[in-house]
Structures are given as structure tokens and as C-alpha cells.
């Protein structure tokens, strides 16, 4: 079985930074794409960023591109999300997820992810 645990969320002032970390256990996920999603109250869960397996190609949503950076450390079985220049609209519960398939492609749909963390709250004050 696979477990994903997010950490690093909290309260930050607009313009500030946070670094989220996702620790995976139960299975090495180096062959799986990893993603960060977020869900704000009353909104659908949306993809924030994802990184593919092996080659490490990355994708960012338009709303965070240029501000957020996703990275992975396969030796540690972790994936991080560095969030800079935070805005109040970034406020949400952030979820780490692992893709179901073992390939090098980018996974842009929530339905391509089988494993999910419990989420960590990020609140950006104005």
C-alpha cells in the first residue's frame, strides 16, 4: 500500500513563501508522475503542478506559473512544492498525489492519479 503525507502548510502573508513537502511510503514512486492539487471552499479540486517520472518534465497551471516550483527527490521518495509570491487566492487545502501508471508522461487529469494525501491547509492573508 501507498501512503502520502503532506506537510508545510500554514498561514502566510500575501507576497510571502511556503514550501510544502510530500513524503511517500509503502512503495517507491520514482516511476510515477507526482502532482500537487488544491481545493478551495466551494470549488473543484484543481491541478496546481505536476512532475513526470524519470525525465522530470513539469507542468504548472496558469494561475501559479512563474511563482510555484515542483521538485522531486526519488532517493527520499518525496515531492515538494515551493510557493513564492503567494496571493490570497492561493488559499486552499493542498493535496499531494501519485499517478497510477509507471511512465514518463505528464499527467494533467485528476483521474490519472490513484494515491492521495490527506491535505495540508495553506492560508494567505491580505
What would you say this structure looks like, in words?
By secondary structure, the chain is mostly beta strands. The chain is 0% helix and 49% strand. It contains no helices and eleven strands. It has strands at 3-7, 10-13, 18-25, 34-39, 46-51, 58-60, 68-73, 78-83, 92-99, 113-116, 120-125. The strands form two sheets. Strands 2, 4, 5, 6, 9, 10 and 11 form a seven-stranded mixed beta sheet that branches. Strand 7 and strand 8 form a beta hairpin. It is globular, with a radius of gyration of 13 Å. The mean pLDDT is 96.
Along the chain, the helix and strand elements come as EEEEEEEEEEE
Shape summary? globular
Distance between the termini: 40 Å
Strand content: over 45%
- Mean pLDDT rating: 96
Number of strands: 11
Sheet/helix structural class: mainly beta
Radius of gyration: 13 Å
Number of helices: 0
Low-confidence stretches: none
Q: Major sheet: size, sense and barrel closure?
A: 7 strands, mixed
The helix fraction, in percent, is under 10%
Amino acid at each position: 500500500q501507498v501512503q502520502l503525507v503532506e506537510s508545510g502548510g500554514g498561514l502566510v502573508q500575501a507576497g510571502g513563501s511556503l514550501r510544502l513537502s510530500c513524503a511517500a511510503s509503502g512503495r517507491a514512486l520514482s516511476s510515477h508522475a507526482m502532482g500537487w492539487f488544491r481545493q478551495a471552499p466551494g470549488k473543484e479540486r484543481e491541478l496546481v503542478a505536476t512532475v513526470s517520472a524519470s525525465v522530470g518534465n513539469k507542468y504548472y497551471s496558469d494561475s501559479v506559473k512563474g511563482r510555484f516550483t515542483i521538485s522531486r527527490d526519488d532517493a527520499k521518495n518525496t515531492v515538494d512544492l515551493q510557493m513564492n509570491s503567494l496571493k490570497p487566492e492561493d488559499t486552499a487545502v493542498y493535496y499531494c498525489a501519485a499517478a497510477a501508471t509507471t511512465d514518463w508522461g505528464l499527467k494533467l487529469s485528476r483521474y490519472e492519479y490513484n494515491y492521495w494525501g490527506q491535505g495540508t491547509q495553506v492560508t494567505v492573508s491580505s
